[in-house]
Amino acid sequence: MKIYCLLQLLFLAVTAEESESPNIIVILSDDQGYGDVGAYWKPTESDTPNIDALARRGLRFTDFHSGAARCTPSRAALLTGRLGIRTGVVQNFDVDAKGGLPAEEETVADVLKRGGYSTYMIGKWHLGFSKGHHPLQHGFDSYYGIPYSNGMGCVDRTGSDLPSCGPCGTIDENIPMSGPPCFPDIALPLVGNETVLEQPTDLYSLSEKYVEHATEIITKSSKPYFLYMALSQPHTPLTPSKKFEGKSERGIYGDVLLEMDWIVGQVTAAVKKSNNSNTLIWFMSDNGPWASKCLFGGSVGPFIGSWQSNVGGGGSVAKGTVWEGGHRVPSIVYWPGVVEAGSTSHELTSSLDILPTLANIGRINYTSKRTIDGIDISHIFYGGEVPEDRVLFHPNSGAFGNYGDVGAVRMGKYKAVFYSGGYPDCQGNLGQNQFHNPPLLFNLEEDIEEKLPLNTNNGKSEAGKALKKILKYYAHFYEKLQEGGISNTTYEVDWSLRPCCNPNDEFCRCDNHWKEL
Asked: What pTM was computed for the model?
């Protein structure tokens, strides 16, 4: 059996070596939990049949983590392979942000473009949209999408959300000022390259537009391409189109999952119909589900963070936190003829690994003078493993603690939690803000719910030795931080910088004309 597996591994590796550089499609969902994909967690009928099919025909990662647990820093980490504490991108940018992803930060699009790839982006950017921070200034040949989250602007046809935001011009004094705001005075734009195409855009028809745009790229590209497709779903507001409305047992959230899954199915179908079958599709979520959205938010699956709920005074254990539900996400690679169908990897991996991995797959000799937190994991596609000493640093993404600071450290089966509390659950409970010294240590192989911290008082015990090792990694990370290249950005705002199709209109509404940014 071992000889057969080795021969198969060699065959797959040779196949990949001899073929041309593959087309690469990265599909990123927004706030989709580990428990929102049938291939990972199926308490009811699956709302993700197309994504499940990718898992059956490809490689499913079970221990894959986002580089942060919130929209903007997680996307910066994915594109650069670097933690926010290095790039300066540690929190979300507003619609009128002066700053964005710093110019000196190299993205996977920059790297692949140097290697001869055409580079395209569709969907949510959320890394700043002022001059110098646009996708076209970060390696992409073209851009089509919403510059930030689908809830960061008013629309004419609203969706389901908590709080429930009205159409443009609606101001509800009953909406609490704490928590996610509404944007009644700026319409949500749809942008093509540097031109506002629609404002407000229609969220109910956005999926069709994204599929049409992606299909054109897939069918017409004459050379290897990289398509980064950052979907709005299932982030609120929930806006399922009519053909998916009322179709899921889970209600409107499930309807939105079905529509998002349909996008994945359409992209996969377009690839199959294209002349070049050498195409890698990598699907993943940007972070865990948004707990404060209640029924309009997703599922963490088995990662329920019991310690926080039972001992830490409640609060979220999902998006924004360093609990597993905040950053452990679904991740699936489909690459026919290379990745073995129905395979599963339990290796410790991260979205930080995207850049070095895709650089290798694209046959690009990639080196960086700056510290890259991710590693090349392409060998896992052929049945390999990551180094035994792999360590992941999970940053604070808006819960208790400073933005970007290391809130938890993962080493093998052990996870040390330094910060807890500070992010709202469905009831608005934040839990107790706590810094743990020594940190809470969990054995995730035996305690996936993060329920019972291990006793580390005996430094000679296995748990005690593990904690000592983790603390050394933690100290070394901060000691060498400045040597790895540090960028800075600003979170200041300027209302004149908001994308605006018609400055003469109160909400920037378009009247059948386009506006250059």
From this structure: 0.95
